[in-house]
Amino acid sequence: QVHLVESGGGVVQPGTSLRLSCAASGFTFSTYAIHWVRQAPGKGLEWVAVISYDGINKYYADSVRGRFTISRDNSKNTLYMQMNTVRPEDTAVYYCARGKSGGYRDGFDIWGQGTMVTVSS
Amino acid sequence: DIQMTQSPSTLSASVGDRVTITCRASQSITNWLAWYQQKPGKAPKLLISKASSLENGVPSRFSGSGSGTEFTLSIRNLQPEDFATYYCQQYNSYWTFGQGTKVEIK
């Protein structure tokens, strides 16, 4: 079974940091680009970041560039998102999702169940 | 940035109906478009990629069409399990989702 499982969410204060993890199983993790997508409560989907299969190339949405850092450890089949200087508008369910073909030009065929991040004082 | 606009935002329909959702891109994305279905409290599910390619296991009552800037998702013979929110997504340049279309029971 192909799975992605997020963890690390919680309630944090504005201006602080949090690290999300996404553990992969059931497929060759090191051959796929992986994305983070978030969804604020009651809102639509927002793409956040992507990392290439080898961890070399990383791209970010304008809303998080300079504050969030995506990374991966292929030896551990795990994706990460370091979230610094968080803001109330970062409150959302964060999903990791696999690029279907392994590269960038395809839909996201496998999604985790999501982890909730709440930024509040 | 490429903007994606879906219409309508909400669609009321009955079991057995045929429904169509439209997605427009702010510039040409050729056929680099996906459609997702999301049910409350669940992750999105990929239905269609490359504008019209149905994913394995997705019922054939779902179909996608279009190219360039205008795309449609059609569902014929709507079933109870199809009531959900649907999103389009472009992946021509970065990745952008439409705002979603909620298909609700009339």
Describe the protein:
- The complex is a heterodimer of chains A (121) and B (106).
- Chain A has 121 residues and is mainly β.
- In chain A, strands 2, 4, 5, 6, 9, 10 and 11 form a seven-stranded mixed sheet that branches.
- Chain B is mainly β and 106 residues long.
- Helix content of chain B is 0%, strand content 50%.
- Chain B is built from no helices and eleven strands.
- In chain B, the strands form two sheets. In chain B, strands 2, 4, 5, 6, 9, 10 and 11 form a seven-stranded mixed sheet that branches. In chain B, strands 1-3-8-7 form a four-stranded antiparallel sheet, with no helix packed on it.
- In chain B, strand 9 and strand 10 form a beta hairpin.
- The mean pLDDT of chain B is 97.
- The chains are: A mainly beta (121), B mainly beta (106).
- At the A-B interface, strand 5 and strand 10 of A face strand 4, strand 5 and strand 10 of B.
